[in-house]
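Help needed: design a sequence for this.
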């Protein structure tokens, strides 16, 4: 998985407050904790701002996590 993709999924994990998925990405994709936490925070902020999540869970058939703000 590309680093940018891993970070995108970490934003999704933050959006859904899914700490388990976040930790798994952090370990498996060897993303630095600082970058990971920043992505997590962006996800939680996107949720608070009412941004629509486009992950598989929210949009059936989607496999591209997309948020307006990119790292
Ligand atoms: Zn979602």
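Sure. Designed sequence:
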């Amino acid at each position: 998985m590309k680093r940018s993709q891993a970070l995108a999924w970490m934003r999704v994990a933050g959006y859904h407050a899914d700490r388990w998925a976040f930790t798994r990405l952090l370990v498996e994709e060897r993303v630095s904790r600082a970058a990971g936490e920043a992505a997590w925070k962006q996800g939680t902020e996107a949720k608070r701002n009412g941004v629509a999540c486009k992950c598989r869970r929210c949009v059936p058939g989607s496999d591209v996590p997309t948020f307006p703000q990119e790292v």
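DSSP finds three helices and no strands in the chain.
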